[in-house]
Amino acid sequence: MTDQAASLRAWAAKQERPNEIQDTVPATNADAAKRTVMVLDNTPAGSVKATENYTNVFTRWADQGRKWVGSPAQWQFVQVGPNHPELTDIAQQCRYWAIWIDNDLDGFKRAYTCLKALAATGQVKQVLALHEPIRSRRGLLSNLQQVAQNYFDLQLLVFSD
What we know:
Blueprint: H1 6-14, E1 35-40, H2 47-63, E2 75-80, H3 87-93, E3 96-101, H4 107-121, E4 126-131, H5 140-152, E5 155-157
Parallel strand pairs: 1-2, 1-3, 3-4, 4-5
């Protein structure tokens, strides 16, 4: 049996590694009534559809009994692209970060670009993986988790469905 993701890992290994990442994350501003999640999203979808996707993931998790989610209505999602000129400043101010992961042919590449951008800020250590239901974490999600840890010193939090 061949490893279908070997070429993706090889591609990731050839990419430029970011500079040394800081060990500490600065204190954040007090959270507003709604908890804000900055979602690094490199997909061409519009922000209304994207926000709906993020909310659907939190609703699914809440329905599965993940208590930390609470009510999905208490979360506010703000979409930002990986090439945003003030990404480092935003990373200093925001407590919660996520990336959107599509389950299509370019999903790995777009997620990799987002992880690389977050790592380059030196401010984010944990990132929540938002994705449509996937039968198995093996493959796309586990490969992204390994890349996040091994190349960017980020912890990609993946919750199985």
